[in-house]
Write the structure tokens for this entry.
Amino acid sequence: TNEAGIFEMKESGLEVVANPSQVFLAERPQAVPGSVVTASLEGSRPLLVEIQALSAFTKMPYPQRKVTGVDYNRAAIIIAVLERQLGLKLSDQDIYVNAAGGVKVYEPAIDLPVAVAIASSFKDRAVAGNVVVVGEVGLAGEVRSVSQIELRAKEAEKLGFKKIIVPQGQVKQLVKCGIEIVGVSSVREALDEMLGKKGP
């Protein structure tokens, strides 16, 4: 059916979770570097999920790359893009990426939030807690369009978020949304918007 059902086990048995996005974000930390909220799709259902990243200096010759709930190969590509296109020195950093709450999100739309989360942790700068980030990242560091952007923006608005970062080419599709829309054409633009332009 290409749909996802979200249930919670209680004393009386399995019960449907009416608002899964709210459940996934219930324990999200505020003003902590490496934490970014994204809007993922499970079938036709949008879910807001927290993407976490931790960057830690290591003296080992081969730094660790550990991911949970996201695609390892895409995470490796994003790390390479951050190093090559943005000049972030990640070759001496252990990097851990996690989709909080045990959810698995493997679609390309989480590329940009993964990139922002890693950069946020590396630079030790927190992302604003009222922002959602969506976008696919190409090898040149460009941000590409994703499917069902309207559904994602409406879910973010419904949960009280004030701003959504989206691919520049999809801004016109969201003119009717009651949430601030910020379009970006590259990962660098997204990081400048969310982390500021101070330093490398």
